[in-house]
Amino acid sequence: MLRAATRIFAGLAVALILGVVPAARAADPIQLEFGNWLPSTHPQAVNSLEPWKKLVEEKTQGRVKVNLYHAGVLGTSRAVLNDVKGGVYHVGLMVAAYYYDTPLFKLTIGELPFALTGPVIGSRIMSEFVAKHGKDVFDQLNIKNMGIFASDAYAMYSTAPIRKIEDLKGMKLRAVGKAWVQIAKDWGAVPTPMQPEEAYTALERGTLNVMQYSPTGAMSWKYYEPASYVTRLDSPIVIAGLIMNKAFYDKLPADLKKLFDEELNPALANMMISVYEKGANQAFDRMKEIFKAKGKGEVITLSAEERVKFIKPTEPEWAAWVKEANKRGYPGEAMMADFKAILKKNGLAPPF
């Protein structure tokens, strides 16, 4: 009996050495599904999401594998909140203005016209504001906040030159969010809701005349091809966030939760802020080169006098935001007062 057992043990040892019987393997990596509605050529996809994927896999020593799905193959930009909440994928890029009728409304204060001036300072201001007035937003929505950040300031991509406010009269202008519907009207334009994914074709077909979008992002969508006149309006700056499925986060081991909270999540937000901060001027320079080579198109900078004409009609939207906040049961006046105080603290003068 002992001799037989010895033979079995010896046989197993030889089998293990020869690779016939597999040794106990490490646990399979946790699969993190990341749904990205931006194209794979977008600077954020290339310079933020792909590097972050590598960072996560390195820092977790292979315990987490990030699967990136670009170009909206898992869902559109307007479906991110429900897709992440429902577990269609685990992490997504959320734009606050698309969820105006949810608690994310609070974040849209940062998208008020001519409020913020750039990604770095805008992200800092919004982080301060969220710490004071928005910490409960993500709990209410049952999602994990991975970081809030601001885009670069938007420009207008148009099929005809826009040098003065009168040039917008009757033009179909993309309304960035609900608040911008009235602004478009006040400018004499026709407000036209439009997702980034659909805008290129809309500009080609004439169902849209002016696309408002980030210069950094516009390079990958190539809006400057059908709309070769680019007016530097420098507003709005869009507030976005990275969100994670709560059930996925809750199931992570404690050490991985800590790693995401303290290092990986802030790293991704900082990557995205950096891309937007550097990208705007690079984008404008590149568009100027393209227009010069084609002999068509122009990057237009508004005169100071004309820019004031764009700013002045937007003042009612600041008061309208407070009124809407009060209607939703939030302390609108207090939130606005704090927002303006944070602006001033960071060296920005509120336009109104």
Please describe what this structure looks like.
This protein has 352 residues and is an alpha/beta fold. It folds into two domains: 30-105 and 126-148 and 240-279, Bacterial extracellular solute-binding protein, family 7 (D-Maltodextrin-Binding Protein, domain 2, 3-Layer(aba) Sandwich); 155-237 and 283-345, Bacterial extracellular solute-binding protein, family 7 (D-Maltodextrin-Binding Protein, domain 2, 3-Layer(aba) Sandwich). The protein contains 13 helices and eleven strands. The protein has helices at residues 2-18, 43-59, 80-86, 119-133, 137-141, 179-186, 196-205, 215-221, 246-251, 254-294, 304-311, 315-327, 332-345, and strands at 30-35, 64-69, 91-95, 143-150, 155-158, 172-175, 190-193, 210-213, 229-232, 239-245, 298-301. Strands 2-1-3-10-4 form a five-stranded mixed sheet. A four-stranded mixed sheet has the order 8-5-9-11. Helix 6 (179-186) links the parallel strand 6 and strand 7 (190-193). Helix 4 runs antiparallel to helix 13 (332-345) and helix 12 (315-327) packs across helix 13 (332-345). The longest helix is centred in the C-terminal third of the chain and has 41 residues, at 254-294. The radius of gyration is 25 Å and the shape is globular. The protein starts with a helix and ends in a 7-residue tail after the last helix. Mean pLDDT is 92; it is low at 1-25.
